[in-house]
Amino acid sequence: MKLLDGKEVGSALKTKLQEQNKELKKNGIEACLAVILVGEDPASEIYVNNKTKACEEIGIKSILYKLDKNTTQNELLALINTLNYDDSVDGILVQLPLPKHINKDIILQSIDSNKDIDGFHPFNVGCLNLNIQGAFLPCTPAGIIHLLKSYDIKLSGLDAVVIGASNIVGRPMATLLLNEGASVSICHIRTKDLSLYTKNADLIIVAAGCVNLLKEDMVKEGVIVVDVGINRLDNGKITGDVDFENVSKKASFISPVPGGVGPMTIAMLLSNTIKSARNRLKTDF
Ligand code: NAD
Q1: Is 266 in the pocket of ligand 1 (CB under 6 A)?
Q2: Which of 22, 148, 170, 186 has the least CB density, counted as fewest CB within 10 Å?
Q3: Residue 184 and residue 79 in one domain
Q4: Residue 120 forms part of a structural domain
């Protein structure tokens, strides 16, 4: 069994991005990410701090807008509009979830698709679905593809199963795998029998948010498993969706939690921001 080490692969990617950022600076461009947090959700605050810290690490400027939980939808739209027209801002990230009185879809659609470094704007989602290259890809699924390729795993022709069908992880993950030439099944909460799919799979991506959802008797020998889940146990520890101890006995590759998909998500966010800043140059180094 080989560990899909997101810490190591993410760190190598960050070093490469740091170099690209230095080149940008030589050309007078300061890559900049605007991060908007509405309200005081403790988990969101941690995510946002991790993202701004990661920017700092590789020299990307980040501006954090911490807005009151009572901020209106129109006030948020006005801020996004200002950032859309600000040429010094390369990426705009609105941390989800948003308070209930704000319509997430309207907000995500209001971000300039050229600054949509989360890859959630319908234009970028459409490009992904049409397999049009060059658009922004959502960070978690794109990070997983990068992780798998870093271990020379050939995706074309694999039988893949994605457990979870959210807009942020499951759906784009399945589309990216399809675009790579895998045969993909998508399972979700209403799937009658997960094992029916997982037992035959060469590759399983689990993104459900459910402790121990994937167990040893549900997978075949040699399977590749990527665990996206983040679950906080009563003892405060973080665990994924996979029974790691037992599934790892059968797997050829498996990602740990923490240290697997999480660091890749952050690295891809930085990668998308640098990509957007490089678009200002319209040249390749
Ligand atoms: P979500 O709640 O939006 O979607 C969960 C999906 O899983 C749904 O499609 C649901 O139908 C399916 N599901 C839930 N329980 C199931 C079950 N018992 N059997 C089969 N399918 C089931 O969540 P999300 O935003 O897609 O995130 C999924 C998990 O991944 C969460 O734990 C989240 O914290 C984690 N996550 C991690 C990262 C990272 O960077 N590591 C990024 C995003 C999300």
Answers
A1: no
A2: 22
A3: no
A4: no
Catalytic member of 90, 95, 115, 227? 95
**DSSP run (H or E) holding 224:** strand 224-227
CATH code of residue 43: 3.40.50.10860
> Do the domain assignments include residue 63?
yes
Residue 254 and residue 154 share a domain? yes
- Closest residue to atom 14 of ligand 1, CA basis: 208
pLDDT tens for residues 224-235? 999 999 999 999
Q: How much distance in Å is there from the Cα of 22 to the middle of ligand 1?
A: 36
Residues 94, 38: Cα–Cα separation, whole Å: 8
- C-alpha of residue 209 to centroid of ligand 1, in Å: 4
Q: Provide the domain limits for residue 160.
A: 139-262
At 260 the pLDDT is: 98
Residue 41 appears among annotated catalytic residues: no
Nearest CA to ligand 1 atom 31: 209
60 and 168 in a single domain? The answer is no
- For the chain, what is the domain count? 2
pLDDT in tens, 30-78: 999 999 999 999 999 999 999 999 999 999 999 999 999 999 999 999 9
pLDDT grade for 282, boundaries at 50, 70 and 90: confident
Strand order in the sheet with 224-227: 2-3, 253-254, 224-227, 203-206, 159-163, 183-187
Indicate which atom in ligand 1 lies nearest the CA of residue 240: 32
Helical H segments across the chain, by residue range: 6-26, 42-58, 73-85, 104-110, 122-129, 139-150, 170-179, 194-198, 244-247, 261-281
Question: Is the beta carbon of 64 within 6 A of some atom in ligand 1?
Answer: no
Asked whether 172 lines ligand 1 (CB < 6 A), one says no
Distance, in Å, from the CA atom of 47 to the CA atom of 39, rounded to the nearest integer, reads 13
